[in-house]
Design goal:
11 helices
Length: 377
Amino acid sequence: MKAIQMVDLVGQYDKIRSEVDEALNRVIESAAFINGPEVKAFQSELETYLGVKHVIPCANGTDALQIALMALGLQPGDEVITSNFTFVATVEVVALLGIKPVLVDVDPDTFNLIPEQVEAAITPKTKAIVPVHLFGQCADMDAFLAIGKKHGIPIVEDNAQAIGSRFRSTDGNTYMSGTMGEIGCTSFFPSKNLGCFGDGGAVFTQSDELAGRIRMMANHGQRERYYYDEVGVNSRLDSLQAAILRIKLRNLDSYAQARNKAAAYYDKAFAGNPHIQTPARFGKSDHVFHQYTLKLNGVDRKEMQAFLQSKGIPAMVYYPVPLHAHKAYANLGLRDEDFPNTVDLCSRVISLPMHTELDEEQLSYITSQVLAFTAQS
């Protein structure tokens, strides 16, 4: 059996090696490293795949979120509502802009924001809501779009972990994740479902006006070269990464199928185990399994992680500490009791290897070792 990886990027590369090598050589020989033809082609192809009018590539997913908020014209003193159970970048960019992060608890099963609690947190200072499509499936966008429309608040989707997921709306249509709110943001970090070989990101919108502002903000605040309308940033996706992403985009749906096949194997192996709760599926959304995350019951997570590691099985904890409990956000003055679900999840979740290259031998070994450990509990 080959060694088990949390994410097997080498194995994935082996299957597209000739295409990637040819594409990289093409870029190098052209020397069109910045805003070259590969970037423009990837932008167009991603727009077609997502069914969105505008894709604006940028340097990384964190930049994508920051640029989105800047494009909306948010100012210090404004408030943005988002999740307490997510990667720090979602909240970090809010704080960096001098905006107040308003953190809300998540559903204990889907791990996504609870719409009713989001609406309850709205104040006259609320200028954006950022649902996070965590671990690979969409938050309840029907509810968030309704809340946004009711209160006149734009919705910015953090789609870093769910690109390729499809949302079946109550309006009878199906939408790609990241395309439903005023703005969607994603990351192309190597371990993401659509990952490059370095850093990369993108911002999506259906609005011509917002697209113009996003492009301006990502390009030093200039619409015309050397004429700066606002303070912006310098955030670009380079041509080498775009060339790689073009190849992976063509495989994205098959990658999702491979991840779902692995998830189904895990589900079946753990069914009925009182110590393991497998990932819940939100009926309106596909799950593309950026992570396969268990909730443990009556199991020492630290001991389980060490046991699995001793057996050559990596397992990760996303996220061990609620965002409000970190030193960087102590100034928000929030308490554990305000976030019972988040606090509980941070103490109980563990993610198993999940990627496109998992084979049945590896899955059998992983599940047998997890079951062996839980049998001792």
